[in-house]
Specification:
It is built from 16 helices and five strands. By secondary structure, it is α/β, with parallel strands linked by helices.
């Protein structure tokens, strides 16, 4: 294996495909990397870009200045694009296309990696389509999305597909031990609790507060035993999400406003001239879009963790004898599983999935969470 691909746990088939393209020297001009969250699609895109630009033989050493610059996001000929908004606007895509017109200054290829291509609307995707169909010379597009279905069919039909799978728990744990020097037992817990999501696993292993927060979420069904407690749990989740969002978006907006003031020679106290108010207004609008996405992402992560509780319960009820995601809660999960039917557990999992879809479609978050918590009550007759 080329060193640059070392962080792609359990993706040997993908590594073989990308290595072959690098060695041939004439890679396809447009790629679509897909895979579930945690499969490493963005990591694979970065590694592929580094290998393409690497000047060593064989290419993909992972250690030369070129490889290091690409991986760290500092290479002038490799751009990493993502949006802080809930979705790409047409204007955003046109700006990306403008970047693609720049010729490579230091390497053979001009590469643009769009890390969240699934956030393109039909309109913005159609604008991107023409750029993919008629790319400038030595231009390579790499689009990343959870699945091919998340990208316009006209775009994905013009890209070479690379599908990544979720690696095994042991493979993720070994990667965390090898790369980050983590304790094997903690690494395995994090790999299992994250459901093999490499990024989340690393966060859980290194951040004690994150582990405590997750533990609080997965124990929630054990605490929510009455309707008042269900309502309080919904309010707590919504409040936590709002606080996180305000912390992230407030700081981000403040920094960008300060940067725009400095760029236009304005002090922090100086009034904004009428001719510049449109730019500051646009910053505020973008911050609102970012807030919507950040809020959704925070709640979605919480609901994903919550789902693992009920999947473990169903695993016990079906007597599959497989390892649980929350193996450390086996005794409590076993007791909970004995108190209800398999059909009830399936309905609880469906309720969480439905809540995620409602929140994604911009339904009032607190109302959606309250409706969810009432359906998660093991004995809804209790008050």
């Amino acid at each position: 294996m080329r060193p640059v691909f070392a962080e792609l746990a359990g993706q040997q088939r993908v590594i073989n495909t990308l290595t072959e393209q690098v060695d041939q020297g004439e890679p396809t001009h447009a790629w679509l990397f897909t895979g579930p969250p945690g499969s490493g699609r963005t990591t694979a895109a970065r590694a592929f870009a580094a290998a393409l630009q690497c000047t060593q033989t064989p290419a993909g050493c992972g250690q030369c200045p070129t490889c290091q610059a690409v991986i760290s996001g500092k290479h002038p000929d490799v751009s990493f694009v993502s949006t802080q908004k809930f979705e790409y606007q047409v204007k955003d895509v046109r700006e990306i296309i403008t970047q693609a017109q720049d010729k490579a200054s230091q390497a053979r290829w001009r590469i643009i990696i769009i890390e969240d291509a699934d956030r393109m609307t039909e309109r913005s995707g159609n604008v991107m389509l023409k750029a993919i169909e008629e790319p400038p010379a030595n231009m390579i597009w790499i689009l990343c999305a959870p699945s091919p279905a998340d990208v316009l069919v006209t775009i994905r039909s013009r890209c070479r597909a690379v599908n990544l799978s979720i690696p095994a728990t042991d493979e993720v744990a070994q990667l965390l031990v090898r790369r980050d020097g983590l304790d094997p037992e903690l690494a395995r817990f994090a790999a299992r609790a994250s459901q093999s999501h490499i990024g989340v696993a690393r966060m859980l292993a290194k951040d004690e507060a994150a582990r405590a927060q997750r533990e609080n979420v997965v124990n929630l069904p054990l605490r929510v035993t009455t309707l008042p407690k269900a309502m309080q749990a919904a309010a707590d989740i919504a409040k936590l999400s709002a606080e996180r969002t305000e912390q992230i978006t407030g700081t981000d907006l403040q920094l960008k406003v300060s940067e725009l003031r400095r760029a236009n020679g304005l002090s922090e106290e100086e009034n904004i001239p009428p001719g510049l108010r449109g730019q500051f207004k646009e910053l505020e609008e973008n911050a609102k879009r970012f807030a919507r996405r950040a809020s959704f992402d925070a709640i979605d992560r919480t609901l994903t963790d919550l789902t693992t509780f009920f999947r473990d319960v169903l695993t016990l009820q079906l007597k599959t004898n497989t390892e649980l995601v929350n193996e450390h809660l086996r005794e409590k999960l076993t007791h909970y599983a004995a108190g209800q039917t398999k059909e009830k557990t399936v309905s609880q999992i469906d309720a969480i999935d439905q809540a995620r879809k409602r929140i994604a479609s911009n339904v009032n978050q607190l109302m959606a969470l309250e409706a969810l918590m009432t359906r998660l009550l093991q004995n809804p007759g209790k008050r």
